[in-house]
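Anyone? Bumping this.
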Amino acid sequence: MDSNLIKSMPHRRTQIEHLYNLFAHKNEPQIESVYIYGGPSSGKTVVVQRVLEILEVNHAVINLIECYSSRILFESILNKISGHKLNPLNPTPYARCDNMMDFLYNIEKLNEVKKLDGFVLVLDSAEELRNMEFNLLPCFLRLRELTGISICVVLISELVFEKFYTKGGGIEPIKIHFPQYNKIELLEILSLDIDYCRNMILEHFNKFIEFDLDFYKNYLNLFLSVFYRSCRDLSELRYMSRINFIKYCEPVINNEHTIEDSMALWRHISPILKSSLEVLYLRLDTTKSANIKEKPNPTLELPFYAKYILIAAYLASYNPAKDDKRLFMKHHGKQKKKLKDIKLKSKVSEQLNTQLGPKPFVFDRLLAIFYSILDDKDNKMGFNNNVLVQISSLIELRLLSLVSDSCFLDGQKYKCNVNFEFIQFVSKSVGFEIKKYLSDFSHI
Amino acid sequence: MGGNRQNNLQDIRICLKNNLYSQSKFVGNIKERNQVQDLLQRTVKFGESNSALLIGPKSSGKTKLINDVINELQSKSSFKKDSILVKLNGMIHTDDRLSLKSITSQMNLENVVDGKVFGTFAENLSFLLACLRTGEKHTSRSVVFILEEFDLFCFHHNQTLLYNLFDISQSAQAPICILGITCRLDVIELLEKRVKSRFSHRQIFLFPTDSEKSLDYALEKLEYYLIISENFGYKINPEVKNKWNSNVHNILKDKKFKNIIQRLVEIDTSERTLKNILINIIYKLKEECLTVDMFQEEINTLERDDILVTLQDLNVLELCLLIAMKHHSEIYEGQSMNFEMVFSRYIKFVKTNSNIQSVPRSVVMKALEHLQSLELIAMINVGGGAKTQKEYQFFNLLVMPSQVNEAIKKTPGLPTEVVQWSSSSYA
């Protein structure tokens, strides 16, 4: 077996061996189908591809994400098998192929020209097959039986195979699981990055600093202690570790700390790591904004009255209409304490309106609440065109959405689409205390 | 010496693989086999039209039976000359247009049909059959239709193909024999009334007998697959072969091995599972002998819960969310939940345990989306699901609480707070 392959893909030994056993002996009968599953970036596709390349097995790799219809899938498989290159000026496929019958026919025809025995067809993101015609998945699983040619189909997916069971029922392929790397394994794999990071530092600062593996591993340890609990995705971790490593080296470049002073470096990096945890998966470009601590502004610059309309819409969405009188009228009379109110205080969080999502409200109610909360500020604004324009621009911005059919001119219904964090920010900017007016919080 | 051993191993492997993949002869179900054979022969010899359904569970040897019968008939008599075999598969021929196209090409009539315009489906089909009729009833060639996955043909529009085929078999037109193969027991109910009345209602059932579910039968099959027999095309050193065979015999008598196979038979008696296990073992062979441990290992992987393995691949945050969902569904008896509810439950947990790092909302959302893409939770659309915000979309937990508990127990290196939270009865 190829020891280089095992070395170049750490901690995938059993999987490589398993695949190697299945495909190494080309002159012997081949298996029908293999199912490979495992978490994101656990090396499924890479390992399969490399093993097949090293064994010089005739194969084609198709990613189902690229094939949104079965026709494209069939034609791209045939193109790959036949080695047909698409001409960019006149992109005609190897053969037109609309359905499984044509596909099988073309495969058999190709077999006469090229020997297809021992061919391996790799279908990546195979879970997409379930959303296509019902017959694709069972047919690919028994392609050998249907064509009479010894073609092996390898399906790669993140899901467990039980999610593929259908009413018609397919056949059980041989399954290989790619487990996610654990912390120690991740540390080892990420430390392979050291040469890249040396170059990156050189490019970024135009200055070379000499560091050894221990220094880098030390950094990775710190990095993983923050990130490992919320992310085990290798490619995401690699990206984050590279970005933060530049920040980690900054004090050394600026001669603030020496390279040996790991405690000082740790104190420097730990708040940076914590704040970059917030942008995990978001891939924001932090190079332009000089200060990473500066959070991206969550609000749009809205006009003053639009902000109030938005707040009113939020209140209308998240308060029951029967509470309006109590919340917004100045002289609503003395409230009797009822048993219900006492119960309200012990309301469990699952029944809170802020947890169940926005409820639709009518236009009149929005206006009423809007004027009532404006009153508090002693701000007078007449009902005019401006208000209506603001509402439609809020809808345009998707901050409000129209729930009812737009053919009803009277009594249109709206919904507020912003979350609590956002509305809190908006109301703070106009000096409005939103919690006072939410029935979920008003009893507190 | 090393090279020699490699060769020996390769010889054994090739022999065993051939054993596994060679189209072995059909065994058992003599009565049913004779019935099918008789049916086909009557069609070909006397020009009788027949129809029958072959019903049996998956991998019970339905297709094998038909192939076996046809192979025998084709080798012996003038069957080949007197008849045309048309094989259709419901999985491939998904509508009647495709079926007809395939029938035409399998009957070698493409050039005859070419350029002709047909009014109806029936016209087209009867034209095809008329082409075969050269003279009287006795002299014309008969057509044998084999419809695999017969139940899928029942979902074609108006069941036109089935109607026409059965209609021809009822009226004394060209002699045809229709054999449907399916695993659905209720297939008759799928037929429309006018189609059903034209069907001969001849049903042949293939059920595994009790003896086929027994340990002895499984051992017999294992012996069949693992023993390298005398009259085998492939040349192999007799010494190596004898050594291998005696090793197999020893293992088949082993008590521990029998226990393992007994366990397998209790879980799954299908041929496919047995073959998959053997494939894994044979492909992994490093030495020229089998051990009981190899089988034990395979049974262990067969019994493994794949969901549990996926859960163990999750990170701590995702596991925390699953625990929160588990608690929610336990408290509310399986009611659906949304992100806000799970998130507030999670925040409550984080606040009470200072050791747990708090994670920003956007990252938690991403973790939830990952769970969704792994299909561990399923969104339910309550009225225009696309319009509601992501945080408020309701979903159901697709994992059993026991599976979450099991995964938490088995994942190493989890913070103790998380483990305790998972096992605590209230949240």
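Late reply, but here is one note on the structure posted above: Chain B is about 55% helix and 10% strand.
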